[in-house]
Amino acid sequence: MPANETGSLWQKICPLFRKIEAILRERVPWVFPLMEQIFFPRPSAKWVRALILAFFGIFLVWGTFVFVLDPYICFHRALGWKQVYTDAYASIPGVLRHVPYDTVLIGSSMCKNFRISEIDRSFRCRSVKAVASGMTGDDVGRIIRLLLTERRKPLKRILLGLDVWAFCKGPGNGHWRSRQYLYDRPFSWEYFLSTDSFGAAFNVIVSNLAPAGTKGAELEKDFDMMFGDKLWRFTFSREVLENSLRCKIEYLISVRPDTVPLVESLVLDPAKKCPEIQVDVFFPPYSIFFWTVLQDCGMLEEYLDARIKIAEKIALCSNVRLHDFQSDPDIICQLDNYRDLTHFSPAVTTRILAGMTARKYVADPLRVRAGSDAIRKMTGEWFPRFKELSSNPVASMVWRVR
Q1: Inside any domain, residue 216
Q2: What is the C-alpha separation between 62 and 56, in angstroms, rounded?
Q3: How many helices (H) and strands (E) does the chain have?
Q4: Are 309 and 369 in contact (CB under 8 A)?
Q5: What is the DSSP letter of 39?
Q6: Which of 77, 206, 283, 356 is packed most tightly, with the most Cβ within 10 A?
């Protein structure tokens, strides 16, 4: 560029810079004194520069550490390390944004012990899990909304383990709200500033450096058991289940008037808008003693009625299929399948997948009604045994109704 043109351009730019400087000095007057202290410090103020540079240095190292290990998969999977799957509610958004899949399993702790390899073999798909303990209807709705609005590859199927009580807590009670910035914004400064993120990043290193054979670390790095339970801590047997009836405090939630409408608005309405996606909803098989507890609390009929109403709503959706495992006596009355009232063994998860692929348990409203009648009958047969166990003087049992 000729010298005269360069001079002309500089003459045009200089006034612009002066205007910007004047505006900044007027609106944010502290900026320029701060910059002068950092870059042109007086001898007496060198400590100010050192302090500020140290602060930014620590922040840069902290942020780089979190970004490289990225414990919640906010931007990518951990660079140079095996990904660790621990905090489900924090990690689910990252899994759904950055891990390849065409099928997603959504559910509460009832679904934590499904193996991704078994899901892949059963449905000939590539799956991930979005499962977490205590998942509410609000959590399910937020995950489905995230799936349908931000999926980067074609989504073929959603598998949903539907717990009626999860939708009995009303709207706005999701655990995801404590990590809302991870669900709403893929990039957030809060992620880098959080001590929780730093601690989770440090845990990635600890798990990767743990000696071979360390059960906890191996589970955290196991993609196949993503967000799974530490099964070696549990025993699935009739004795363990019956002992839990003698001493465990259980919190039961009454069915609310808005329970079924919540299922419709959070699950079925979004599914209707995406007819190309197959949604397989299944009622998880709780033990027979779960239903006896409901009868003891006077809540059995409202739960059975909610099952039927949900089935009626699902029947109106062409791309949603319901599988009912709750009335099969070969599962729910085989008490060696359980460790407490509701949590079943991995053998049952295998049976659930086989039943879904064979469509053996597909249920319309009439079949769900017949299943509810069967549950009512089995509950009556097992109720004396339940009362015998629950009245054992060894320990007191308290059923708290919310």
Answers
A1: no
A2: 10
A3: 18, 7
A4: no
A5: H
A6: 283
User: CA-based angle 166:296:259, to the nearest 5?
Assistant: 25
Instruction: Select from 146, 155, 226 the least CA-distant residue to 180.
Output: 146
- Mark whether 267 and 316 lie in a shared domain: yes
Whether residue 107 is found in the same domain as residue 239? yes
Secondary structure, 3-state, 155-183: CCEEEEECCHHHHCCCCCCCHHHHHHHHH
Q: How far apart (Å, rounded) are the C-alpha atoms in residues 378 and 304?
A: 13
CB 43 within 8 A of CB 36: no
| Helical spans, DSSP H, in 70-178 | 88-98, 116-123, 137-150
Query: Domain with 169 in it: what CATH number?
Result: 3.40.50.1110
Strands 250-252, 157-161: pairing kind = unpaired
Look at 128-132, 202-206, 278-282, 371-375 and tell me which has the smallest mean pLDDT.
Answer: 202-206
Same domain flag for 373 and 324: yes
The number of residues making up the chain comes to: 402
Are 228 and 340 found together in one domain? Answer: yes
Assess whether 239 and 384 both reside in one domain: yes
* DSSP annotation of 127: E
The count of structural domains within the chain is: 2
Q: How far apart are CA 227 and CA 115, in angstroms?
A: 10
CB 173, CB 208: distance < 8 Å? no
- Decide if 206 is inside a domain: no
Of these ranges, 2-6, 193-197, 219-223, 374-378, the one predicted with the greatest mean pLDDT is 374-378
Show the domain range for 104: 100-175+223-401
- Euclidean distance between CA atoms 136 and 258, whole angstroms: 14
Q: Is residue 316 part of a domain?
A: yes
Per-residue pLDDT reduced to its tens digit, 346-398: 999 999 999 999 999 999 999 999 999 999 999 999 999 988 887 754 333 44
Q: Are residues 238 and 354 in the same domain?
A: yes
19 and 155 together in one domain? no
Q: d(Cα 371, Cα 325) in Å, to the nearest integer? A: 9
Which residues on adjacent β-strands are paired with residue 158? 104, 279
Q: Is residue 8 part of a domain?
A: no
Strand 320-324 and strand 157-161: the pairing is unpaired
